[in-house]
Amino acid sequence: MATLVHHLASPSTYKDHQNHEAEEKQREQLLKTTALYVGNLSFYTTEEQVYELFSRAGEVKRVVMGLDRMKKTPCGFCFVEYYDRQGAVDAMMFINGTKLDDRTIRTDLDAGFVEGRQFGRGRSGGQVRDEYRQEFDAGRGGWGAQIAQKLKEAEESRALEQAAHFHPVTDIPAGPERDEQANGAVGGADGAAGSQQGAATSATKPKRGRDEDEEMGGDGKRRA
Amino acid sequence: MSSYHRHPSFTSQHPKAGGRRYNSRGQGHSNGHQRSAAYGTSDLESRLTALLMKVGDRVDSADPSVFTDQMTALVDILLADLDGSSGPHIRQVFARCIVEFPMKTPMYATLAALINARVPRVGETLLKGECLSLLQSSLTSGDWRATKLLLRFYAQSTLTNSLTLSSFHALVQPFVQELQSISPSTALLRDRGDALALTLLQVLPYGGQPLLSTDGLIFTVISHWMIRRVEGSDQPIARSLPLLTPYPPTQDSSSSLEPPYPVVEGIQGWYEAVQAMIQKEERKEEESTMTDLDNSSKPASSTQSSVSILLQPHVYFDATLTKATPVNWGDQEEKEESDRMEDASIGADASLPAKAISTTLPSPKSVEWWVLHDIVGDTIDLYECNRREGLRLLVTLPEQCVSGTFRPLQIPLGRDPLDEDESEEGDGKAWRLEALILQVVFARLLSLPSIPSRHVVAYSTLTSDLMRPQTRFPLVYGKAIRSLFSRLGSMDLECSRRLAEAFSHHLSNHTFYWNWTTWADQLKTAKEEGEDEDNRDASLESVRESQKTFIREAILRMTWLSYHDRIKSTLPEDWVGQGPERLIPADITSRPILTASPSSPEGSSDPTSIPGLVQSLREGLRLRKDLLVVEKQVKAFIHPESPELEDGMAQEEETRHRRIQARDALFECILEHGIKSTSHMLGALERYLPLLRDLGVREDGDAGKGLVDLTVRYWGGHGGFLRIVLDKMVTYRVIGAKEVIDWVLGQDGSQDPETGVNVYAYYYPWEVVDSLLDRAVARVSRYTRARIDAEEALKQDGLRRAAELNGTEAQEEDIPMTSGQVELHTAVREAVEGKEWAEKEIKDFFIPSLRLFLTRMQSHLAHSGQNTESDRVWVTLRGWFREMCRRFWRVIGGMLVTLETIVFMGPEIDGRGEWNPRVKQEIDMVVQFIKDRQAKVLG
């Protein structure tokens, strides 16, 4: 009887819909494969970092970085191909679920890289998961593509709306004279303070020194 | 609702589905007895399997009523099916559970006892059937762990009144007889005897006092073996070769954070611990005999395992079990044994009180220490393929032990994790599980002579996963690392490298946070002490250098996993910059200008000038121009349309010179292309490889050496990339492995002014060499496997053809070979040729490496004097040499004659013609090690 321990190097239930091989054939490929899909990478993770981490599990033949179909920039996944299967199995056991660039990466046995698979399949060019992502993820380009698109559209429409309703000022106001301000004609939020300050004229008010600055705090607010 | 549905494990649909409601095919679970194609078991069987696997998972020794209810319910469920069609499956799973859950041996023994008490016939089948078969097959296949665990189960069964003591003796009789008759005359027999003795030693404590003291036969035989083992063999049990003992054994048993030596497998340690335990039991027996004079009651310990920390769940069922009839397959009935349970007065609270356990940490001389290390080690090994499950079992180990054995893992909310819980020491919460697990992990990580390189990442991932919030794991890990850091001076170089690799990976999983300033202060103080002429201590200097190398390498590996600026920002300022005291350069982005770079823009338009060629090559690489186009440009450079030189020799010389210039320019441009990424460089290399070869990259060793120098000069500041590039260049056969080995071992220990790299200040140059040697060795086994596969396929094909010809007049030769057969014959031929070539390559790599090592060690000692331990270059060279011999002892073992010839011929560089005694000592030690391994493994 085989062992009762579930092996972590078992392929997931993911099915590549663009792989047109028969299901049985695909299963056979997965049993022999030396390739891994690596997901949840940061867009800024480099090939060399991936190489360094995964070569600890076996001898890496090549790393194929996943690219945004439109921009041709990394979009958060890659394929790692080992020279032998044991390397792929070991990576599934020991590297899957660990962190690279502060992100928990996910690996899965892959039937094998074929040209074209390095590109994201989302509508915007990246991965599908980034298309519908609701959270902000700084390591993966900020908002999900659809939200980003909505935000962009909202920004554009706001700009358009603003442009439609905004009437530029043609007569630039000169602003009140100082004396008027000092006499409390224009008060601050605390009118009393404003009128007290107004008691000193610009001519008699001593220049604020460094100590006073410090007492006031760097932000100009008086400390308690 | 039946008890089956009440069981807490009921929600788990599939033993391997981790509690998901979907089976492995993602189709959702099916009802009833529908059979699952994936596992060949019915749904019911799957559920029963899950129940068996979870036996005792939630036992609370303080309130065992829930546990006893669950066990009783489980017995009901199992009894309903054990007699049916699912019986064999359940028994098989039961046997597998025993060998896959090392900490639950008492649980399974109790379950079997309960079944036996209820229906003796079923109980007997359970103990005799699949469990015995598995024991037999484990012995046959040399699976000593499974053998040990099954025997432990049977030993425990003697306590639960489900197996007679005579039956257990009958079971171990073959072991005892063989151990009595075996002679430790050869390495193979020694190993066999050790394995038998060790297995028995590991089993005995589970049988408790009755097994140990009934007649003492088993232990007596083991004792005789130990005496004969020491007297009759020149091989001591505890090896004393420096090659194998990098650390002094732990002297201070009170500190749990000391590295866990001696190794867990130590037979001597087990022997002494069991001997001490027997003496203790004997004392207790004497005392109880004295007490018996006053009151005639038997001690409760007669039904308890001698491993006092393990929970003994059978005591909760004493009323049931005392009435049971134990299974007996011994030669004679042992009435007194069957009476034993009846006489014993066991209460429900018979589990050992916390006060009975030492309030200090377990002593390495106690059997508890050995058993706990054994259980944790077995769990780590068994669950290598599923570290998450292994981790779950490890952190729930306290549930399988007597309440109060371990301190709680969780730190109460609001309490600072950094606060030591010394105040708890007196309240019975004695041991720390964190320390125990990390001890075992570090013991495995640093064990010698070697571990598979993949295990380094396995152990570092395990420690990373252990760092749970609100526990003391991070604190204990930090202490362990600091403790090991202080021992780096005496640590084997290979162990230091493994530790640096694991440490860097660990930190990369925890935001690279580490308090470096403590180490910075230590190094500073050590430096100041070293500068004091009066108190100059070479050994202190050596320790400091080892520590610096470790830190440098750990930081370097972190930068490879992250990026330079990020790591730099976390380090003390003193460490960043240029100079011997700096551990990491301030900047790694600056690279040298290509030697063939255009010096002036004017010349860059002329395709026959170097600047022009470089310009066009860069352009070609950037635009991925076709090989033929670039080839044409290069040829235009090599053969410029210039007035013919009158002298033919001069013409030839000029062409040769220009070819070398073109080759270097192309190679440098490819290296430069790697700034974008490794794939860019490899893509360019693959595209223009024929041209590079045409330009003579492999013409001679000088060409290769030049290219290695170019690579190192260009990428020397980025060790990680350099490692990849050198490796790939060798794979593509642009440069030879020998040139790389020459580069690493040809250095004299000072910083190379050309490349800016001092190879002996790092570990990674050795890793480049190690990888090349390893690959050469792997190639031979790959070809061997390919030949075996092809020959097997041919054999099968021959049998099939013979079957087809059977009954016909035709001879096999009359039928032409099919294309498949031709392919198979070709595959066999290629595999044979490939293997011959790979074996030759091994010789080409290893013999020069051995020679280079010895020569380098000899020449270094000739120049540096004899103060070797404080000499970093010597320590590094020696460490690498030992590692090579340990790792590749099989290969080097086949070259011992060559090695001895090299030794006999004497050092080439020393006019005296004599080996330095230190070098000779290393050679002798290595030869002895290899011969010992050969004798041990190959017989």
From TrEMBL, chain A:
In this protein, which residues make up the domain named RRM? 34-112
Cellular localization per UniProt: Nucleus
Give the start-end ranges of region Disordered: 1-22, 168-224
A single Gene Ontology CC annotation of this entry is: nuclear cap binding complex
Keyword terms: mRNA processing, mRNA splicing, mRNA transport, Nucleus, RNA-binding, Transport
An annotated Gene Ontology molecular function: RNA cap binding
- Where does it primarily localize? nucleus
One BP term from GO: mRNA cis splicing, via spliceosome
**To which protein family does this belong?**
Belongs to the RRM NCBP2 family.
Cited PANTHER family: 20 KD NUCLEAR CAP BINDING PROTEIN (PTHR18847), NUCLEAR CAP-BINDING PROTEIN SUBUNIT 2 (PTHR18847:SF0)
The protein's name: Nuclear cap-binding protein subunit 2
UniProtKB/TrEMBL annotation, chain B:
Pfam families assigned: MIF4G_like, MIF4G_like_2
| Domain MIF4G-like type: start-end pairs | 362-573, 654-891
Region span, Disordered: 1-38, 280-306
Q: What's an example of a GO molecular-function annotation for this chain?
A: mRNA binding
**Organism listed in the record:** Piptocephalis cylindrospora
Under what name is this protein listed? MIF4G like-domain-containing protein
* Comp. bias intervals (Polar residues): 24-34, 290-306
The superkingdom listed in its UniProt entry is Eukaryota
CC per GO annotation: nuclear cap binding complex; nucleus
Q: Name one GO biological process term.
A: mRNA export from nucleus
Q: Which SUPFAM superfamilies match?
A: ARM repeat
Q: What PANTHER family does this protein map onto?
A: CAP BINDING PROTEIN (PTHR12412), NUCLEAR CAP-BINDING PROTEIN SUBUNIT 1 (PTHR12412:SF2)
